[in-house]
Here is the input.
Amino acid sequence: MTQVNRPSFPESRRAFLRDRGVTAPLAAALPDPALFPEQADDYPRLELMRTEHEKEGIIPPEKAYRMMEWSLHFPPQAKFEFNLEEAMKLARDAGSESMLFYSHDHWGYALYPSGRGVRHPNLVFDFFGEEVELARQHGMSAVAYYSLQFHHQIILSHPDWGWVNEKGEPQSERGRPARMLAALQRPITLADAVRVRLTSGS
Here is the structure.
């Protein structure tokens, strides 16, 4: 692992700072040298963190110290030829306690079996379901991301629902059609973001 250089402080750092005119409150606010171990080879001490967190079992997303988002958007020609099991192990080894998976991407494709949504043309299995199952097997909670505003499939079916410019023409982005919904029944706010918490019992 790459050596991380940590700042070093003299034994009496408060005296050192006081002698140079630094006020006591500022000197007291400086980090404790004990927080910066001399040997940083094991930083950020993932093994210790894993051991402590494994005692808790699967940690809910809102209590996780590290969530990883897999921002996967698959254009129509994409193949699903990668090792989800290995990728999940790598996410866990990187210290992730919770995973955010796309259940419905910006192309408008459902990444799970759906009777209503348009499934990705090259998807022959429950991609989203497998991600969630593997996350749980590796002791991580899962959160679903469902793209509302960016939705190519709806715009292809209902062009009049799309985002238009001031002339009423389909909006473009970098020379391509920007297939985004112009409006829903009410404005989308951060609180409206669809992130379904997936608990182990659901």
Observations:
- Residues 65 and 178 are 35 Å apart (CA to CA).
- Residues 1-43 form one domain.
- The first strand starts at residue 67 and ends at 70.
- The longest helix spans residues 127-137.
